[in-house]
Design goal:
Blueprint (H helix, E strand, L loop, with lengths): L1 E3 L3 H12 L7 H23 L12 E6 L4 E6 L6 H9 L3 H13 L8 H5 L15 H10 L11 E9 L6 E6 L5 E6 L5 E8 L14 H11 L7 E10 L13 E9 L16 H11 L8 E7 L5 E7 L16 E5 L2 E7 L11 E6 L6 H33 L1 H20 L6 H4 L4 E4 L5 E3 H7 L6 E6 L3 H5 L2 H8 L4 E4 L4 H8 L1 E2 L2 E5 L10 H13 L1 H11 L5 E4 L8 E6 L4 H10 L9 E6 L4 H11 L3 H19 L6 H12 L1
Bound molecules: adenosine-5'-diphosphate (ADP).
Amino acid sequence: MYKKQFKAESKRLLDMMINSIYTNKEIFLRELISNASDAEDKLYFKTLQDGISGLSRSDFVIWLEPDKEAGTLTIRDNGIGMTKDELDKNLGTIAKSGSRLFKEEFQDDGTASEEATEEATEDTGDSPADDEDAPKKDKDIDIIGQFGVGFYSAFMVAKKVVVKSKAYGSDEAYEWTSEGADGYTLSPCVKDDHGTEITLYMKDDNGDEEYSQYLETYMLSSLVKKYSDYIRYPIKMMVTEQKPKEDANVEEGKEPELEEITEEKTLNTMAPIWKKQRREVKDEEYNEFYKENFYDYTDPCWIIRSSTEGVATYTALLFIPGRAPINYYSKSYEKGLRLYASGVLIMDNCKDLLPDYFSFVRGLVDSEDLNLNISREMLQQDSQLKVIESHLEKRIKSELLKMLRTQRDTYEKFWGEFGTQIKFGVYSDYGMHKDLLQDLLIYRSSKEGKYTTLDEYVDRMAPDQKYIYYGCGSSPESIAKLPQAERVLEKGYEIFYLTDEVDEFSIKTLQTYGEKEFRSITDDDLGLETEEDKENLKKADEENKDLFDLMKEDLGDKVVAVKASSRLKSYPVCFSTEGPISIEMEKVFMTQQDPSNRVHAQKVLEVNTEHPMFSKLRQLYIADDKETIKTYTKLLYGQAELIEGLPLEDPIEFSNDICELMK
Ligand code: ADP
């Protein structure tokens, strides 16, 4: 027997493990079970490769043996085992590259490990032998939370760890023992079968942490379910349960007699639902899986299963919920997918796998390319996850398009729940994702009030129609009634009815669809006029110039101009706007911006010179009754505000003015 020091870099990691006040100590079990499963995989493949017969997959088992009296938990496998050399190498060092990457990661962050010594030792129950290089607390919590940390995590819960191992095909077994940071011993031991047996001598309970809970069978069962349910080998444990006596005659109204039965139980399910082919699984089974795992009580409206090999090898099982979670449009909602590495849960909510505009998608990704091993993880966090993310993004989009094409009702319902998020996606990041998302957009339109895609709209456009028209308002009905809609509809052109606050922002981000430009029906140029119309309009403006100037003067800077209108037919007056801000956008700003520096639309008061009201104005002008013109102008302005759904600036004055007229 001899005693050895850990290699410097391993020591650092070990210190971190031991002293981390990391709350998620329970993952030690996941790590040890994953190692056991890997060791069994290795032996299985070795027998295949070497043509050794006599061992099949079903021979491999992982056993858990809690012993409350001794205060130990043993994890045993019949995998490939380790030679003396391997015990020394594998458990005495952590791959160099791994620890270097680890260090770089800290230093990138500006938290040089030396500086963080104090923080790392604060608050921890067990004081380390030597924590010179202990990394910063918050940061290590982060890393442990995201990645597998392997064998060393045993020291988060154990004061002493004994590993007995016998390599497959060898006659000798060795025992590796360590009580933490100050080293380990290695000596021969007796062990009958190949494989590895790891015994953890649990730390004593203290006020902060109850280590003895990891000796309870119910706790171990639930940890296996949580993290290791899809390990392909059975994880077995002796479990004692209270059961009704079998031969007891149960009298009515009486509790059956109970007896304690101890039996070996397999704790894990083994075959994950996402590994099965789509056609092998009924929709109901998927639905149940979804509801159980993602805390929803409504069935998902769409299921996506994807299995890919090549640049990235992974299986994804994704769900589009049937209903938006209550907190979906708030900050408390967290997007993300569950991430497994070969069936082992490594992260509950991996945000990097979903772009914001598809944040409603729930589900999981299981990849063989990811490993619990830190060194590999760190690299893959960048490259591998990104590849998977971009695959998933394309796949989600194509599935949504498929839903749109084949199940329009479902899509429209989906749109009601999550459409706003996609519209935000078009608008966000300066329109970077508009090409990806534009075909997913649907809006109601004047065509029977139904939802229409941009493509369908353009398909229906009349040959002489220049623009894609849209109007904004609180409901399709109110937009259809806008004075500005009248002429466009009369021409037989379709209008998109935009009722969501974000709509106009996203349309303005799009600017065009294909060759066609979007135009608001309140825009001052609608491209509707014939040459003759334009001529008439010019004439009307010239003839009434003095009157319009007077009206503009009365209104001050509330408007940029008063003009004759070509778009009004039966209505007396309306607003149009110049510049990039529309009236609908002004309404949104009203709810968001601070009143002192609020942005306003540049409004033009358009007057219908064909309307009987206008001849009255002209009469007043000829009679030089400036006072009455002033009152009428205010009233016309107020009407335009009301039509647009804007609040009247002075409702009392408006009301008094009307009463004055009624007298
Ligand atoms: P890894 O992420 O590589 O599994 P660990 O620190 O968990 O890192 O383990 C280090 C190495 O020790 C493993 O790569 C493996 O070679 C060996 N090892 C750990 N547990 C076992 C086991 N139960 N059986 C055989 N080898 C093991």
